[in-house]
Amino acid sequence: MDYIIESQRLKLRKITSDDFNEIRDILQDVEVMYAWEHAFSDEEVSKWISKNIERYETDGFGYFAAVEKETNQLIGVIGPLIEEIENRKYMGVAYILNKSYWNKGYAVEGVRASVEYAFKTLNADKIIAQIRPENSSSQKVAEKLGMKIESEYIKHYKGKDMLHLIYSLTK
To answer: Residue 16, Cβ neighbours under 10 Å: how many?
Structure first.
């Protein structure tokens, strides 16, 4: 398996359809998915995986499977990805971790490695992160990486208007 990004405790590789069970465990946990306001169905998990595999073809990157080096366990998905906000494309970073790996520094570590990859390998000048205002944990991750609130916007998702803060960091 080829790893694209590596940090002290994590290896990031492309997601494959073989990751369905581990990713389903994450995307079907209502606590993990509270920012989406719903857990995903099996069909939504399959579509989510397919969309990310498609991103590798169209963009060359996307969410990657985050594998803990010590155990070789998939602990979440982390990576740089193209974010579209009000019909403009931005280089973003995002992550979703299995709840049992929360509060252990994996999000900061994985996102930091993804930001470095985006700046050095993908030649991004600026990185953004879309974060719901009530998601204080993700706000802390962004702030630990030096990201600051740049703006906010309303994302329309499944018939709902969801306020998002846009954090950014320039090279």
So the answer is: 12
Q: Is the CB of residue 117 less than 8 Å from the CB of residue 4?
A: yes
Is-contact 78 110, C-beta < 8 A?
yes
Strands (E), the chain: 3-6, 10-14, 64-68, 73-85, 88-97, 126-131, 148-157, 160-170
Dump the DSSP string for 85-104: ETTEEEEEEEEEE-GGGTTS
DSSP state of 48: H
Secondary structure class of 1 (helix, strand, coil): coil
pLDDT exceeds 70 at position 99? yes
Give the residue among 147, 152, 141 at the shortest CA–CA distance from 127: 147
What is the reported pTM?
0.93
| Secondary structure, 3-state, 101-115 | HCCCCHHHHHHHHHH
Name every residue whose Cβ is closer than 8 Å to that of residue 10 and which is 6 or more positions away in sequence: 66, 67, 68, 69, 75, 78, 106, 109, 110, 113
